[in-house]
Amino acid sequence: MGQPLGWGRRNLMVRPDHYRIDYVINPYMSTQDQPDPKLATKQWESLRQAIVDAGGTVEVLDQRPDSPDMVYAMNVGLATADGRAMLSHMRFEPRRKESLSAADWFTTNGFTLGRTGTDGVGPHFESGDAFVFGDALVVGYGHRSEALALKHLATEWNIRVRGLRIAHEGMYHLDLPFCPVDSTHAMVYPPAFGAASRGRLEQIVPEPIVLTDEEAFAFSGNSVVVGETILMPDCSPRLREILTGLGLRVVVLDLSEFHKGGGSARCMTNPLDFDLSGIGVAGGEVILPD
């Protein structure tokens, strides 16, 4: 059995004051299926409270009126416990204004900023594609983040980066098919990745919990771990048995209004305490599957 994750207790969320579907940038979105504002706020608050009840903290970044997807706070930037933040450089232009507010919040709260690009110039990087796990920062690339961004992360922060190429359009960010659970276990959905990356999964994750199609598309991989509690939008009896067997307390929350935009618990929550101390490499190192 692995040790509890060394991150996930300090979190950033964006209240859904302006959450709506104005455009379509993933297979789950439809402008004809708008979220209910009152229900969305209720579901958001239930997630925030569950994090606090599990022993975590939540800080709130105000949502821009012109950025309806900003509620998916996982993608505003990649933050570390030692006060660094790499802003996301969004692939889709309608989401790029989010970084303006995120930059102000990070600097006001003492973070030193980095960027892989801005205003469409430079490699795209979206922080929902990145998790510290094992001996590296694991970064998904292909749909939203570009492979060149991995080199930028590695060299600017002097860390080891392991890349996984995402091939499935329904799993467009790493936080959908890859969920660290403890120091050795992660929920993974292999069909999300290219063939070479699927082969790399067993090297990256010593003890994978392989999701079924049904579990993956119920957003089970888009869960949040806070200490010894896992907050999930859906949990099959099979997954519950596995996770409780690892000593985790499973809490299932209704986050269905946020599934309309293509995200769930993890997308809505940005950990501010990723620990890079165990993945440092002088000059940086990037390991790609192919």
From TrEMBL:
Q: Write out the GO biological process terms.
A: L-arginine deiminase pathway
> Origin, by domain of life?
Bacteria
Coiled-coil ranges per UniProt: none
Pfam family membership, one = DDAH_eukar
Q: Which UniProt keywords apply?
A: Hydrolase
Q: What GO molecular-function term can you cite, just one?
A: arginine deiminase activity
Protein name, UniProt field = N-dimethylarginine dimethylaminohydrolase
Q: Which organism is it from?
A: Kribbella italica
Q: Output the lineage of the source organism.
A: Bacteria, Bacillati, Actinomycetota, Actinomycetes, Propionibacteriales
